[in-house]
Amino acid sequence: MDNKTTATKLPSAESSEDKEDEEEDTSTTDEEEECENEVPESEVIENAFLDELIFRLMTAKSPQAQSPGSKKSVEATPIIQVQISSEEIIQLCDLAIQSFACQKALIRFEKKDLPLVIVGDLHGQFRDLRSILTRCGPPHKQSYLFLGDYVDRGIQGIEVATLLLALKCKYPSKVFMLRGNHEDGNTCMSYGFYDECLERFLLDEGGGDKIWLKFLSVFNWLPLAAIIDSTILAMHGGISPHLHTLDDIDRISRPAIVPPYGLLCDLVWADPDDRHDGWSLSPRGISFTFSSSIVESMCHKLGIELIVRAHQLTSEMIRSGHKFFANGRLVTIFSAPNYLNMRNDACVMKISKKLHCRFLILRTMRKAMRTRSLAHRQRKS
Ligand SMILES: [Mn+2]
């Protein structure tokens, strides 16, 4: 029996560009050892197709300065083009649907599932996704919760979605994905992913349309929120006036498109905002904003201590990739550095076994990630 392939170690991404100038901050002690939490082999799916696909995605190299006519030589991050056929995407999407269909809309993590790395918006930044996986640890050792917005805006939504879905299928008890507002046909038709699919699979039978629709059929199954040790609630957008108990989230039926109003809509679209007290109509033209007082009362009502969400990159987040709100009851994280050439830093959040939260900063300029001991101690409620 070749059980060798089962325990396929995730190969390291090409990462020469971010090796040399890593920050010397070494405050990583107790957290580092915590990730040696290898997944039992019984929880790893043996599938040569997935192994090969993951290997190909993780080891592909960028064509490095090969394109003499490239206009934005210094600014642009070189693309890591990966050959993926439409048949492979269809096969992967079918596996992913099966995987998500046996998961509830609300994912429940217990203490034994910690430590956990939470990743915010990625928006097609494939190189940065690989960098996060390399830095934080491969998913056979380190658990991940991705908060959505895998596609659109950036140029490699196909690679980001494909790698995450393949990892999800391969390590179903270590990799978890939530839905973002961009994982929906109405949004990702307009912000890049549809065009990316059309262009890439132009000559395939059924064209890029077919592949885009196939991805959508997976997105419609994505879970919508996660609760960690009954104290930390995570989602892409925010809370909702329709959220009364956590069971309300479980009752959302899937597959579903994102509706124009209601609980599902708010979970992927809402934002915190203290410019108006209470609930207000969102300037996005869909869903609501909610103030600190709403966060406080929601935490009390649900019996939770912290809300973690993504969905926004505000000016205060440019140097750290995250921002607290409502006296530390809510934190926004954003994981796409140099998003739309904004030169922003980004971050991922790591929750330790003791429920301490810390932020690993993904630096834009020097492409180094350092740990900041911004340990946010969970307050007693
Ligand atoms: Mn979003």
Description:
It is a single chain. The chain is of the alpha/beta class and 381 residues long. It contains 11 helices and 15 strands. It has helices at residues 29-34, 48-59, 86-101, 126-136, 157-170, 185-188, 193-200, 207-219, 247-250, 263-269, 292-302, and strands at 106-109, 116-119, 143-146, 175-177, 225-228, 232-234, 271-272, 279-281, 288-290, 306-309, 322-325, 330-333, 346-351, 357-362, 369-376. The strands form 3 sheets. It has a 6-stranded mixed beta sheet. Strand 2 (116-119), helix 4 (126-136) and strand 3 form a beta-alpha-beta unit. The relative contact order is 0.14. Residues 149, 180-182, 236, 311 line the site of manganese (II) ion.
Order of strands across the widest beta sheet? 1-5-6-10-12-11
The major beta sheet can be summarized as: 6 strands, mixed
The shape, in one word, is: globular
Summed up, the domain count is 1
Proportion of strand residues? 15-25%
CATH topology: Purple Acid Phosphatase, chain A, domain 2
Mean pLDDT: 87
Q: What would CATH call the class?
A: Alpha Beta
CATH architecture: 4-Layer Sandwich
Structural class: alpha/beta
**Count, helices:** 11
What is the N-to-C order of secondary-structure elements (H for helix, E for strand)?
HHHEEHEHEHHHEEHHEEEHEEEEEE
Number of E strands: 15
Q: What share of residues is helical?
A: 25-40%
